[in-house]
Design brief:
Layout (H helix, E strand, L loop, with lengths): L6 H6 L6 H7 L7 E3 L5 E3 L1 H6 L7 E7 L9 H14 L4 E5 L4 H5 L7 E2 L2 E4 L1 H5 L5 H21 L6 E6 L3 E3 L9 E3 L10 E3 L1 E3 L4 H8 L3 H9 L2 E5 L4 E3 L6 H8 L6 E5 L4 E4 L14 H10 L2 E5 L4 H16 L5 E6 L1 H7 L12 H19 L5 E6 L6 H13 L4 E4 L1 H4 L5 H12 L15 H11 L5 E4 L1 H15 L4 E4 L19 E10 L4 E6 L18 E2 L5 E2 L3
Parallel strand pairs: 3-16, 3-17, 4-15, 4-16, 8-11, 17-18, 18-19, 20-22, 21-23
Antiparallel strand pairs: 1-2, 2-14, 5-6, 6-14, 7-12, 9-10, 12-13, 14-15, 22-23, 24-25
GO molecular function: ATP binding; formate-tetrahydrofolate ligase activity
Family: Belongs to the formate--tetrahydrofolate ligase family.
Keywords: ATP-binding, Ligase, Nucleotide-binding, One-carbon metabolism
């Protein structure tokens, strides 16, 4: 194993084609691409508008079991499956999210795939890329500045500064900024008040960019952002501050999807990046819809496990955008399932069929959950060299009893050649007409009942609790006309419960909603549960300590 190359070494050795050539494979002329160097480009808004009326391809969702320190490889499988579909002669396009700098320099790493199933240029994608996140950060903080500026110059809108709900953002993990006091230093600096920062991927502006259909829809949604309340408790909108149009200007280029390529020179649209534990966790609607016009099959992912990313993909993104997925892939590793079965990380390489079977309860729950949306499922076993024949047989047998197939995939080590069987199965499911997609709850369900529905049917919770203030706030939003919005539950990714240490498939636990936030522009209500933070902190030993430039000026340490 000493000669196994790191992800960044594999990416650096890639034989990339000019991005213009990648676009030509999809019928995109050089005039319709806006190059960012030789290996990445944005697809112009005019070209995307010209696709209206073309037939849609099949939409494939890649999701996963709950993440563990053992690793699952959802993005790697998404990229590998896209390559695999192209390998078997299908015209497939990959759609994934852009990575956040927070995890890259924190503990999770980047999100460009791994091994021989990556999108490149890996370093650029995991760092500044085409500047989309910087544009989102700037647009968000422009609104923040205009709020405090409006108050400073007389507060014509009569904003109650105690009820300003709009925070600031930055794309980095920094727990010190979660709760702050602003405008200290006397009258010249404004009125002191409490505030705080979220990470950029939790910004409503990020969600809006990822759900907007076009620039006019973007501007409309930005105008609908509720920044706080007046003394009479009536909402104040971004459009009241005349901030929406300037924000749209900052986001004009960021709205155009980014196109890169896989190691096998297939097209990938990498656009938008909301986290699935604190936001809706999907790439942009505009990229997904463009890909559906450009390819016969579109492979996209939703963040973290199916209890978070897939549920929000179905209940928020598909509901708002009118998308109807044709099949779903649930990614699992034998190592992660053994960890769900009680095995410690240092013992995962040893065969343990008994623990694996115990841990399969987590996989079984996700399979059942995805089927509740009327979408056919296949399980992808992301292969590790430590997997034994007995363990593979055990998981295949378990999934077979669920009425589904579990397919061993070796794309990390072999690229598309290692995932052909899954590609054929996905085509069979997507073309079979089995999908009867429907969201989990209708629009008219009361907001608290929507939270209860997700908690009971997806998390298998026994009870949902919330303080009176939370329930009253939900009722107030219903009275203001927001009752038809879907809910976006912010919850730990590590468990079906709100306790990150509770692995497997827990039943009857309590989900406590401690805070709710209105994302009127994005079009959903955020319900924050457990100890989830919208501004993460760095670990004791962050990845940033091991990222550096080598003697050749190349980046080392990204993963």
């Amino acid at each position: 194993m000493a000669d196994v190359k790191s992800d960044i070494e594999i990416a650096r050795a890639a034989k990339k084609q000019p991005i213009i050539a990648i676009g030509e494979k999809l019928g995109i002329s050089s005039d319709d691409l806006i190059p960012y160097g030789h290996d990445k480009a944005k697809i112009s808004a005019d070209f995307i508008a010209s696709l209206e009326g073309k037939r849609d391809g099949k939409l494939i969702l890649v999701t996963a079991i709950n993440p563990t320190p053992a690793g699952e490889g959802k993005t790697t499988t998404t990229v590998g499956l896209g390559d695999g579909l192209n390998r078997i002669g299908k015209k497939a396009v990959i759609c994934v999210r852009e990575p956040s700098l927070g995890p890259c320099f924190g503990v999770k790493g980047g999100a460009a795939g791994g091994g021989y199933a990556q999108v490149v240029p890996m370093e650029d994608i995991n760092l500044h890329f085409t500047g989309d996140f910087h544009a989102i950060t700037s647009a968000h903080n422009l609104l923040s500045a205009m709020i405090d500026n409006h108050v400073y110059w007389g507060n014509e809108l009569n904003i109650d500064i105690r009820r300003i709900t709009w925070r600031r953002v930055m794309d980095m993990n920094d727990r010190a900024l979660r709760e702050i006091v602003m405008s200290l230093g006397g009258a010249k600096n404004g009125y002191p008040r409490e505030g705080g920062f979220d990470i950029t991927v939790a910004s409503e502006v990020m969600a809006i960019l990822c759900l907007a259909e076009n620039l006019s829809d973007l501007e409309r949604r930005l105008g609908q952002i509720v920044i706080g309340y007046r003394f009479d408790r009536s909402p104040v909108y971004a459009r009241d501050l005349k901030a929406d149009k300037a924000m749209a200007v900052l986001l004009k280029d960021a709205m155009q999807p980014n196109m890169v390529q896989t190691l096998e020179n297939n097209a990938a649209l990498v656009h938008g990046g909301p986290f699935a534990n604190i936001a809706h966790g999907c790439n942009s609607v505009i990229a997904t819809k463009a890909a559906l016009k450009l390819g016969d099959y579109v492979v996209t992912e939703a963040g973290f496990g199916a209890d978070l990313g897939a549920e929000k993909f179905f209940d928020i993104k598909c509901r708002q955008a009118g998308l109807k997925p044709d099949a779903a892939v649930i990614v699992a590793t034998i190592r992660a399932l053994k960890m769900n079965g009680g095995v410690k990380k240092e013992d995962l390489s040893a065969e343990n069929v008994e623990a694996l079977v115990r841990g399969c309860a987590n996989l079984g729950r996700h399979v059942a959950n995805v089927r509740k949306f009327g979408v056919p499922v296949v399980v992808a076993i992301n292969h590790f060299i430590s997997d034994t024949d007995a363990e593979i047989a055990a998981i295949k047998d378990y999934v077979d009893r669920l009425g589904a197939d579990a397919i061993v995939c070796r794309h990390w080590a072999e690229g598309s050649a290692g995932i052909e069987e899954l590609a054929y199965k996905v085509v069979e499911l997507a073309d079979g007409g089995q999908a009867k997609f429907q969201p989990l709850y209708p629009d008219e369900t009361p907001l608290f009942d929507k939270i209860q529905t997700v908690a009971s049917k997806i998390y298998h919770a026994g009870e949902v609790t919330a303080d009176k203030a939370v329930r009253d706030q939900l009722k107030a939003w219903e009275e203001q006309g927001y009752g038809n919005l879907p809910v976006c539950i912010a919850k730990t990714q590590y468990s079906f419960s709100t306790d990150p240490t509770l692995r497997g498939a827990p039943e009857g636990h309590v989900v406590h909603v401690r805070e709710v936030r209105l994302s009127a522009g994005a079009g959903f209500i955020v319900a924050i549960t457990g100890e989830i933070m919208t501004m993460p902190g760095l670990p004791r030993s962050p990845s940033a300590e091991r990222i550096f430039l080598n003697d050749e000026g190349q980046i080392e340490g990204l993963f």
